[in-house]
Automatic annotation (TrEMBL):
Pfam families: Orn_Arg_deC_N. It comes from the Bacteria. Belongs to the Orn/Lys/Arg decarboxylase class-II family. GO terms for molecular function: ornithine decarboxylase activity. Residues 17-250 form the Orn/DAP/Arg decarboxylase 2 N-terminal domain. It comes from Nocardia otitidiscaviarum. SUPFAM superfamilies: Alanine racemase C-terminal domain-like, PLP-binding barrel. Signal peptide: none annotated. This is Lysine/ornithine decarboxylase. The active site is at 314 (proton donor). Keywords: Lyase, Pyridoxal phosphate. Its EC number is 4.1.1.17. One of its GO terms (biological process) is putrescine biosynthetic process from arginine, via ornithine.
Length: 371
């Protein structure tokens, strides 16, 4: 995915060595789990090929992601069409491509899967009672746990293969108890299904595994211990654990190289730093200032002061941080380079096509795919 030249700004640089290290760290933290990479976090061909070589599965959200994975040599048998919002035509196309595993959270979507992907394996996404994450989904996804029981029985009756319940604790979840709560609720669903003679071969505990940005996040080893203990408490040994990381595998592998476009002292006395990257060409996760990225400059030894950080477009909402306390050198000037750390997840994939005429964020990949 390398485009243009290595000196252009802005650009995202991904380190494949760190991707591999993150995968191996998660494998060590959850040795019995099936690791299913959420492609949406970083749909970079080199990352997909590396993780495929490492033995990962893939959570795909669209026909486009399915085609991308197939182009990198991924077997459709290890993909799960995990987006519960999908058209009938897309289900049919996924089945034609060889995808045999689907997630759903409504009876309508379940009926579409049964019609257009008969015999498929299904996971029902329920809304767990987990505490709010830093970038929450709200109630957009997931049915009531009681409804999940009913829908999985219905799935069996429609001739589909029941995989089990599925939940997601929200992106960048920093409270380990969230997984304990979700696993306990999933266990109750499995018990109810057992009464109906429906076995649960696997439970998908979703993604949400956090990384450290400006604030520290729990280590994978700590989260893995909580998840493994809760899973062992509520499920028998033969039940498989599925985890769907995105950010945890790629978040700390990327650095955005940007540039100061302008520095302004606003009428209210606040200093504004305008970068050549903003919310529409890679920094969408700064919406509501949920994710606090760290900045590095070549002037970090100079005096520091607070600054509002904004993007380059003519949109008044293209402001990255004005409530979050961001300290930047007082000597920063137009043309100075700025590095935005831990930007490997949800940056290039969130970048708009051409808002205000600015091109999508370019991605460069470093590090050999194979040792």
């Amino acid at each position: 995915m390398t485009n243009r030249n290595l000196l252009e700004s802005p650009r995202l640089v991904i380190d494949l060595h760190r991707v591999r290290a993150n995968y191996q760290a998660l494998r060590a933290a959850l040795p019995a789990a099936r690791i299913r990479f959420a492609v949406k976090a970083s749909p970079v061909p080199e990352i997909i090929r590396l993780l495929n070589d490492e033995g990962a599965e893939f959570d795909v959200a669209s026909i486009g992601e399915i085609e991308l994975c197939i182009a990198q040599g991924v077997d459709p048998a290890v993909m799960c069409y995990g987006n519960p919002i999908k058209k009938a035509a897309h289900i049919a196309a996924a089945r034609a491509a060889g995808v045999r595993r689907y997630a759903f959270d409504t009876e309508d979507d379940l009926a579409r899967i049964a019609e257009h992907a008969p015999g498929a394996e299904v996971e029902c996404r329920f809304l767990s009672s987990a505490p709010q994450s830093q970038t929450p989904f709200g109630t957009k996804f997931g049915c009531d746990p009681g409804e999940a029981k009913r829908l999985l029985v219905r799935a069996r009756d429609l001739g589909l293969r029941v995989a089990g319940p599925y939940f997601h604790v929200g992106s960048q979840q920093t409270d380990p108890i969230a997984w304990r709560i979700g696993i306990e609720q999933a266990g109750a669903i499995a018990e109810a299904l057992a009464v109906k003679d429906i076995p649960v071969p696997s439970v998908n505990v979703g993604g949400g595994l956090p990384i450290s940005y400006a604030d520290a996040a729990p280590e994978l080893s700590e989260l893995g211990a909580v998840i493994a203990e809760a899973f062992a408490t509520h499920f028998p040994e033969h039940t498989e654990l599925v985890v769907e990381p995105g950010r945890a595998l790629v978040g700390n592998t990327g650095v955005i190289h940007a540039e100061v476009v302008n520095v302004r002292q606003a009428p209210d006395g606040r200093r504004w730093i305008y970068l050549d990257i903003g919310r529409y060409n890679g920094m969408a996760e700064t919406e509501n200032e949920y994710i606090a990225y760290r900045f590095e400059t070549d002037r970090d030894d100079d005096p520091m002061d607070e600054a509002v950080v904004a993007g380059p477009t003519c949109d008044g909402d293209d402001v990255l941080y004005q409530r979050t306390r961001v300290l930047l050198p007082t000597t920063l000037r137009a043309g100075d380079p700025v590095r935005i750390l831990d930007t490997g997840a949800y940056t290039a994939s969130y970048s708009s096509v051409s808002f205000n005429g600015f091109p999508p964020l370019t991605v460069h990949v470093i590090g050999a795919e194979r040792e």
